[in-house]
Design brief:
about 15% strand; 8 helices; 7-stranded mixed beta sheet; about 220 residues
């Protein structure tokens, strides 16, 4: 997902307190940023920020963060997140634990220490359907699974409306010997109470089923 340049985005990236500051190529200490011992749940790609912001609102005892490589998208999501945090704190006296990080997923294993992420969310990522060589860009490709393994992430929650991507993902996970569970071929047919609907999901669920699964690696991997 790409966004048009926003004149206010650089200032938002510089000043928004929910955005994790990091110097290029240096390790990012998430525990120092959150300053607590609560679990950290990460979303790859944040869209407009609804999913990660609502997650933080519902579960204040968990640290939530979104990783996004597009500066304009991250700036917009972080702006929305900060407004929500301020509103929740004013209304309920509770400050949700929420953060945003400008980073390409390919750099995760070099920038974040193993064992810090307790759960990873992949929601409606680009299916890269047109060329066979693009399969390696899919976030459930074996190359990315090895990154998640190196980070010691114990579980991944995955949603998509693309059937071919879902089938590819199950095959990729199986070949990597990941355990797959809680598979749904039509998530909205019997909507779980804990499902947080993303902006994309709300818009496109009327055109076909939403597929979902959870998966866990069976072993650690070093790359």
């Amino acid at each position: 997902m790409r966004a048009r340049k926003k004149k206010w985005a650089p200032a938002e990236l510089a000043d928004n307190p929910l955005i994790i500051r990091s110097e290029a190529e240096r390790p990012i200490n998430l525990r120092t940023h959150f300053n607590n011992g609560a679990p950290i749940h990460m979303e790859i790609g944040c869209g407009k920020g609804r999913f990660i912001t609502e997650s933080a609102r519902r579960y204040p005892d968990i640290n939530f963060m979104a990783v996004e490589r597009e500066p304009a998208i991250l700036a917009a999501a972080a702006r929305r997140g900060l407004k929500a945090v301020q509103e929740i704190k004013a209304a309920d006296g509770i400050s949700p634990s929420l953060a945003f990080l400008l980073l390409d997923v390919n750099e995760l294993a070099e920038r974040i220490a193993p064992g810090e992420i307790s759960r990873l969310y992949i929601n409606f990522c680009d299916p890269w359907p047109r060329k066979k060589k693009w399969a390696k860009r899919r976030l459930t490709h074996e190359g990315f699974l090895r990154i998640y393994e190196k980070l010691g992430i114990p579980e991944v929650h995955f949603k998509t409306d693309n059937r071919l991507l879902f089938e590819f993902s199950i095959e990729s996970l199986s070949q990597a010997k990941w355990r797959v569970r809680n598979v749904s071929l039509d998530l909205h047919a019997d909507m779980p109470e804990d499902n947080i609907v993303t902006e994309y999901e709300e818009k496109f669920s009327a055109f076909g089923p939403i597929y979902r699964l959870e998966a866990s690696p069976t072993h650690a991997h070093t790359i």
